Amino acid sequence: THSHGPKGEHAHEDVSFTTWLDFRLATLQAEAVAEALIRKKPDHRRLFDQNLQRLKSDLSALDLAMREMVRKNPTQPVVASHPVYDYLAKGYRLNLKSVHWEPDETPDTEQWIELQKLLQKHAPKWMMWEGTPKKETVERLKSLGVKSLVYDPCGNAPQEGDFLDVMHQNIENLQQAFL
Hints:
It contains six helices and six strands; from the N terminus they run ββααβαβαβαβα. The protein is α/β, with parallel strands linked by helices. The chain is globular and about 60 Å long.
């Protein structure tokens, strides 16, 4: 819950904000940011344009890597621990269903029941997490035939490296689900 001024508090419960997980959308966002920076600092246009071109090249490579990976097994079911992967799923046509679990919390009985119902219809072999899940959760998932992998949406600045480093690691982690 938050507010945008005097209109009062509200929540965006069903709004996925991680548009950048679709690297084509991230490219459009980068272009919009570069245009805004150029308007603010027109004398730095050349630098902004150069950096934008490098970023677009990097994002294009990530986009291609995702497409090639998914192309190997396009119907592979995957479950996500959190509904932050909507743009990733749509952009790369992932066969993905989400629950709402936090990696640092142990799922309660109701959450396990919800997952078991999902597994009957969806049958994933892998679950994507925003961060490293608790060991006992990983073990219980394994007993259900579901392995865990981390796909960090990078909603904040990473502790090490940068956005591109995180996305490269995400793709490397996700590859095991598409073998």
